[in-house]
Amino acid sequence: MKAIAIIPARMGSSRFPGKPMAEIHGIPMIGHCYFRTAMCEDLLDTYVATCDQVIYDYIESIGGKAVMTSDVHERATDRSAEAMLKIEQALGHEIDIVVMVQGDEPMVTPQMISESLRPFYTDDSVNVVNLMAHMDSVAEFEDSNEVKVVVNNSNEAIYFSREPIPSRKKGSSEVPMLKQVCIIPFKRGYLLKFNDMAETELERIESVDMMRIIENGDKVNMVMTQAKSLSVDTEADRQKAEQMMIGDELRSHYG
């Protein structure tokens, strides 16, 4: 199985402009994502897909591989698919699986990448996988920057939302508080199919790409990870990530 990682990144984030180049322990966030993803031995290679020259130049400067993409993409999946086709053209063969790693996950680990790929080895019907993790606090559960997920007994996503789901209104302390972790492997053909689908109403309302799959009757297979991660959406998140990464073992290999 030929799997590559693509890290889509752009400077124009509405919530945190310029965040891929925001430094954490002296290294741009996109650098942390690249170095840590590239450590995964289950990947043929790792690429950054961007429309911004500053990101492209930085990745090239650290010996990484970057692909310039269009600046009109609204979704990370569109940017990743364009990059995948360019990579395939350069390689002269098709890729089996693209692991899309969001560029705002500076604490990604090689093990997380491997965890996300396991379902493809055991079930040919799997088209897309998404990592999920337990949230540590009600405050995180209620944070609209965190995408929450509810799953069925087969660990398939039922719904994604930026609202706290399922409801805690009855006061239950047993409500599962699960969040999406944006490490998302796609089978090659399904990534292209996904991008050919029209944006759906609930996808637009929730601002969560994965809702497009559910609304079209397909499955998102969720895999639990015990790894601690943080999606950086604000300057406060960057500061929190910096604290969480003090003493980080992986960072010692590249930082």
Characterise the protein shown here:
This protein is an alpha/beta fold and about 260 residues long. It has a single domain, classed as Spore Coat Polysaccharide Biosynthesis Protein SpsA, Chain A (Alpha-Beta Complex). About 30% of the residues lie in helices and about 20% in strands. The chain has nine helices and twelve strands. The protein has helices at about 30-40, 55-60, 75-90, 110-120, 140, 190-195, 200-205, 210-215, 235-245, and strands at about 5-10, 25, 25-30, 45-50, 65-70, 95-100, 130-135, 150, 155-160, 180, 185, 220-225. The protein has a five-stranded mixed sheet, with helices on both faces. A hairpin with a 5-residue loop joins strand 8 and strand 9. The longest helix is centred in the first third of the chain and has 16 residues, at about 75-90. The protein starts with a strand and ends in an 11-residue tail after the last helix.
